[in-house]
Design brief:
Elements: H1 7-20, H2 24-37, H3 40-54, H4 64-71
């Protein structure tokens, strides 16, 4: 005969499982990261952006007006 399980025991076991599960959001973020790191063009753009920032070639955008001014 199978031993009886209480609701509390079942709840604790589910909590243990949840603690070790990979969340969908985490998996999606990991896949996005792999996709970015696997794309040479994207990585080159990121490298260029980092160089531009280090050289001071950027403008801070703090409002919609700043953004619209950049686009025109």
């Amino acid at each position: 005969m199978t031993p009886a399980v209480t609701i509390d025991e079942l709840y604790l076991e589910i909590k243990k499982i949840q603690e070790t599960m990979v969340r969908r959001e985490d998996l999606d973020a990991l896949l996005d990261t792999v996709e970015i790191l696997s794309n040479p063009e994207t990585m080159a753009q990121i490298q260029k952006s980092e160089e531009d920032i280090a050289a001071g070639r950027f403008r801070e955008i703090s409002s919609i007006d700043d953004l619209l001014g950049e686009l025109s």
